[in-house]
Amino acid sequence: MTPIDVPIDHGGALAEAMARHGGTASEWLDLSTGISPFSLPLPEIAPDAWRRLPERAEVARVCELAQRHYGGSVLPVAVPGTQAAIQLLPWLRPHAENIAIVSPTYGEYARSYGRMGMAAKPVPTLEAAAQLQVAAVILANPNNPDGRETPRDDIFGFCRAHRHKLVIVDEAFADMRQDLSMAGAAGIEPNLIVLRSFGKFFGLAGVRLGFVFAEPKLAAIVQERLGPWAVSGPALAIAAHAYSRLDLVRDLRSRIEAAHAMTRSALNKAGVQIAGETASFFLCEVGDGAAMRETLASHRILVRAFDHSPSRIRVGLVPDDLAAVRLRETFRIARRA
Question: Coil, helix or strand for 282?
Fold first, then answer.
């Protein structure tokens, strides 16, 4: 596990890749994140959104729209990105000694609890977490980076059988799999917390926006820790636009599905073994993940490698046919090398 004083190597570090391998941003094909390669068209933002602090009514309206969009049973708490919510999770049970994380997965969960002196125990499944005396269990669904999916019935059953444990489900990559979402149960199941990301699906990660669905007492802790004006006025305006335009949402879904198919085809034609996937990325078995990452980077294609899965890399979605051909042919060169 990465020490809490050592930054985790995330995807999207394009500036570092350019410093190492050269080129300009326009010459690189960045497939290192699970962020959609397509962005929702931005609305015209009123000048007042930049000049003044957002009103409570504006925040409430966007939370209502998010509740409808994600199928929530309670109003969520708006947060400046789900990473901000992850930083606050330990405060939901501040005196806990141990938590469990269904692993391998996103590394920031363990770091957040480690800062509070809590031990994060990796477990392979929810069933394994049931055997531990822990205060909380964290599950990413679908999981990053292997795309593992946990059925809703399994999560419901776990919540009800382990009322003393908080069950935190991160649905950052669930926008294309609403059948997996537990957002509608958060607030009904008192020990369930669901995190939803705005930027990944809408291709607007720079907006820094997310939502936390939870029963009122837990939601109040998150809100109190955030403080006032946690989410910017422009972010609220963009979210209100996104959640109100079902035509644009449908178009994004179609484009992501097409990009997923193109990426899968490129990997298959290059002879790359797919070990897992979500609608937003593929986990590939390549023998030596770090070496393959460097080889692809020498051709100015950026992917993600992992310390916990050293034989694998994660590949995001190509945006078009030209990028698909480039990925396919570069993989062929890399595999021959």
Answer: strand
The alpha carbons of the chain give a radius of gyration, in whole angstroms, of 20
Q: Tell me phi and psi for residue 113, to 5 degrees.
A: -75, -35
Q: Which tokens belong to 267?
A: 């990997």
Question: CA 196 to CA 119: how far, in whole Å?
Answer: 25
Quick check: helix, strand or coil at residue 211? strand
The encoded tokens of residue 113 equal 């609890």
- pLDDT above 60 for 4: no
In order of their start, the domains of the chain are 14-39+248-336 (3.90.1150.10), 47-245 (3.40.640.10)
- Over the stretch 129-152, which tens digit does the pLDDT of each residue have? 999 999 999 999 999 999 999 999
pTM, two decimal places:
0.95
Give the closest residue to 204 by CA, choosing from 235, 232, 226.
235
d(CA 139, CA 172): 11
Task: Let me know: does 90 contact 68? Beta carbons within 8 Å.
Answer: no
Burial class (CB in 10 A: 0-12, 13-18, 19+), 332: middle
Name every residue whose Cβ is closer than 8 Å to that of residue 55 and which is 6 or more positions away in sequence.
Answer: none
Are 155 and 129 in contact by the 8 Å Cβ rule? The answer is no
Per-residue pLDDT averaged across 307-332, rounded? 97
Token output for 248: 């644009």
Whats the size of the chain, residue-wise? 337
